Amino acid sequence: QARLAQSGGGLVQPGGSLGLSCVATGAIVHNSNIGWFRQAPGKERELVATMIWTGESPYYVDAVKGRFTISRDRNTVSLQMTNLRPEDTGTYYCAGGYGDKYSKSGYLYWGQGTQVTVSS
User: Fold this and answer.
1) Mean pLDDT of the chain
2) Upper half-sphere CA count for residue 64 (Cβ side, 13 Å)
């Protein structure tokens, strides 16, 4: 069984940058998907970015394309966020799984969540 522990996040002004990290321990296999989701108050949890654990096939939703980068170094998966906007505000979760990588139902393991607030 895998465990995901998140760090990072915080308060940033519009246009600023933040990084999120997710350390995976336990049984992560190389063909698993690893993703970042976010959930704004009163809204559904939505996919932000995902890739295969090996780093292949990165995918970004249109709203963050060109501004966010998902990457992995050993057992740490990162989400680098630049040019942040108020609408990026929410609780961010890393997730791992073997199902549909575009759907939260395809993920089995979840981090504890970390808050990102973009505000002036």
Assistant:
1) 94
2) 25
> What distance in Å separates the CA atoms of residue 52 and residue 25, rounded to the nearest whole number?
16
Of 17, 15, 53, 20, the closest CA to residue 37 belongs to 20
Residue in the block written with tokens 């549909």: 100
Strand, coil or helix: what is 87? helix
Look at residues 1, 30, 16 and name the one whose alpha carbon lies nearest to residue 110.
Answer: 1
Q: Give, as one character, the DSSP assignment of residue 100.
A: -
Q: Phi and psi of 86, rounded to 5°? A: -55, -30
Q: Above pLDDT 70, what percent of the chain?
A: 98
| pLDDT tens-place string over residues 22-31 | 999 887 666 7
Pairing of strands 114-118, 10-12: parallel
